[in-house]
Design brief:
- The protein is α/β, with parallel strands linked by helices.
- It folds into 3 domains: about 190 residues, Rossmann fold, CATH 3.40.50.620; about 70 residues, no CATH class; about 55 residues, no CATH class.
- The chain has a 6-stranded mixed sheet.
- Helix 9 runs parallel beside helix 10.
- The protein is globular and about 70 Å long.
């Protein structure tokens, strides 16, 4: 087993109570089994979307445990930078008809690139930078109680992100069976205190200050911390600019409108109206015309191309964009070009374009 072979162990810490309990428990277990290998705490810093107390909690943990804290960051920018760049990229794609519907800037429950790109990937790279050869172990503080998906997680599994030809990567979930009360009691018994998000503001969890999966209660709790006000306003400004609410069922700007100036409140209200126009326009698109994995699958009829062009004009007007391919013939040509490119990429011939008798409308 990897631990018996002295594999280095990286203990993921966010500043939340689960990661505190994880760090104390893993280190105690490694001591108990006489593990002589290296051990580290590793924290993925998400930048200005982080609670101000998260890194200090991790630093205190490292000091109390007497082990190194490794702090990793995405080199291309923090979480807010990722949302902003995603929005810019999605606008560019829509402008060039590389997608039929305008794509939101935010992470979602189905697309948690926030976790993958700013946590898992950067941690895995750092682990293998430090130990390019041999087994490595990533200890994670998830619990079955938290969700149905986590309830199905194994205690130990291979980690493809850190597995190499000359060494296996492993994910270890040591506190899977713990309940929230167990976590609180364990941290308290170790003489430590919880993150300020719990102690001072009543949040039930610690992740980003404003999480796409957060409850209304936790979002409101975050707005009570003055250290979160600047990023709150920046995120609401992106809601207003994009016409996409932060959560599918909730506008972040509605959580604490008193923190917004009159101008931003007005822009947010206008964005809600423009969002309705965008959604209404895109609802007219038949599903078979939508792209699959970034590519069209069928040639639209001339009338369908005219509909796509009309929807694009309406969306551009609603969101305030300058877009290409806003007439029938341009849309048809764009689809031909994209389908030919998709076929070439797949190494096949492009399917023949449909012909329609009397198709002049």
């Amino acid at each position: 087993m990897a631990l018996g072979a002295s594999a280095p162990v990286f203990i993921g810490v966010s500043g939340g109570r689960d990661s505190q309990a994880l760090a104390y428990r893993v280190c105690a277990h490694l001591d108990d089994i006489g593990h002589p290998g290296s051990r580290f705490l590793v924290h993925a810093d998400l930048g200005r979307v982080e609670w101000r107390d998260s890194l200090p909690v991790c630093e205190r943990l490292a000091q109390r445990l007497g082990i190194e804290l490794v702090v990793v960051r995405r080199t291309a920018g923090d979480m807010m930078d990722r949302w902003l760049s995603r929005w810019s990229g999605n606008v560019a794609r829509y402008t060039k008809l590389e997608c039929v519907k305008l794509i939101l800037p935010w992470s979602t429950a189905a697309q948690r690139f926030c976790t993958a790109e700013l946590k898992s990937q950067v941690i895995a790279r750092e682990m293998r930078r430090r130990f390019p050869v041999g087994d490595v172990v990533s200890a994670v503080g998830i619990r079955r109680e938290e969700s149905a998906k986590r309830a199905r997680m194994p205690a130990w599994k291979q980690d493809e992100r850190t597995t190499r030809k000359r060494g296996q990567g492993h994910t270890w979930n040591p506190i899977l069976g713990w309940r929230r009360g167990d976590v609180n009691d364990y941290v308290r018994n170790r003489g430590d205190e919880l993150h300020e998000a719990y102690r001072l503001y009543g949040s039930t969890r610690v992740s980003c200050a404003f999480c796409v999966l957060g409850s209304e209660h936790d979002l409101r709790a975050s707005t009570n911390c003055a250290g979160n006000h600047a990023i709150y306003r920046e995120m609401v400004a992106l809601e207003a600019a994009s016409t996409f609410s932060f959560q599918s069922h909730r506008w972040l700007g509605d959580v604490a409108p008193d923190l917004l100036d009159a101008g931003l409140r007005a822009r947010l209200q206008e964005a809600k109206e423009r969002a309705q126009a965008r959604v209404s326009a895109e609802s007219r698109l038949p599903e078979h015309l939508l792209f699959v994995k970034g590519w069209p699958t069928v040639m639209p009829t001339p009338s369908e191309a005219a509909l796509i062009a009309e929807v694009r004009r309406d969306v551009a007007a609603a969101v305030g964009l300058q877009v290409a391919h806003t007439d029938r013939d341009s849309v048809l040509q764009r689809y031909r070009d994209l389908m030919a490119a998709a076929a070439a990429k797949a190494g096949t011939e492009a399917p023949p374009s449909h012909t329609f008798e009397g198709s002049q409308t």
